[in-house]
Amino acid sequence: MGVETGPLAQQAFLRILVILETRDYLWPDEAACERFAQALAHGPEIGDACIELEGGLGAGKTSLVRHLLRALGVTGRIKSPSYAVVEDYAPPALQGRPAHHFDFYRFNDPREWEDAGFRELFAAPGLKLSEWPQKATGMLPVPDLRLTLEVQDEHARRVHAEAGTARGQVLLQHLDREFQA
Ligand SMILES: Nc1ncnc2c1ncn2[C@@H]1O[C@H](COP(=O)(O)OP(=O)(O)O)[C@@H](O)[C@H]1O
Ligand SMILES: [Mg+2]
Questions:
Q1: At 78, is the secondary structure helix, strand, or coil?
Q2: Residue 10 domain-assigned?
Q3: pLDDT above 80 for 83
Q4: Looking at the 3D structure of the chain, how many domains does it have?
Q5: Which domain covers residue 97, as residue numbers?
Q6: Ion ligand 2, residue ranges at CB < 5 A
Q7: Cα 121 from Cα 37, distance rounded (Å)
Q8: What CATH code is carried by the domain that includes residue 122?
């Protein structure tokens, strides 16, 4: 049949095109991942940010999420949401806004998107952190920031950051000012 031109196709199209600004970082060790998370957490923009985390198993996506939630004051257990798809938090630093940590690795039924209420979660205020966003392509909104992590050796990671919105550009500016590898 004809080329898909519905809203989902348009969204997928935008996801590929809108990259406003990029940065490349090196984390020599996990302490650098922690400092990176602290710099990201610094401004008010993090409170409603939508951040996608790409990279293979063991790249450090969940570790970054843990350091970010800790930097926002979360003290309880932070577990990987692989079976539940999403874990919710109420980080003290976000002043009432929630944080949602998604892992779409096992997400394969688009109907689950509606049934689980993910559309509402992404439309509402709060921090959204998504591992394996490529498994939910066409569902997810344009991210403020997309971070692609790559293992360099046992301790070092290369990080490519793409800002897709003005909020993402502000997050990059926080990193410019506050993150030193
Ligand atoms: N520089 C680093 N940044 C993040 N994690 C690191 C780093 N160096 C080593 N690690 C380790 O790599 C592993 C990454 O695992 P995890 O965060 O679960 O990856 P993912 O969620 O991408 O599959 C953790 O055991 C973490 O301690
Ligand atoms: Mg993970």
A1: coil
A2: no
A3: no
A4: 1
A5: 19-178
A6: 61-62, 131
A7: 22
A8: 3.40.50.300
Contact indicator for 180, 35 with CB cutoff of 8 Å: yes
179 Cα–ligand 1 center, Å: 18
Tokens of 107: 């997400």
Inter-residue contact 43 to 13 (CB < 8 Å): no
Digit-coded pLDDT (tens) for 101-114: 999 998 888 888 99
- Proximal ligand: closest to the CA of 57: 1
As a whole number of Å, the end-to-end CA separation of the chain is: 51
pLDDT tens sequence across 46-70: 999 999 999 999 999 999 999 999 9
Task: Return the ligand number nearest the Cα of 82.
Answer: 2
- C-beta of residue 38 within 8 angstroms of C-beta of residue 9: no
What distance in Å separates the CA atoms of residue 133 and residue 142, rounded to the nearest whole number?
A: 11
* pTM for the predicted model, two decimal places: 0.92
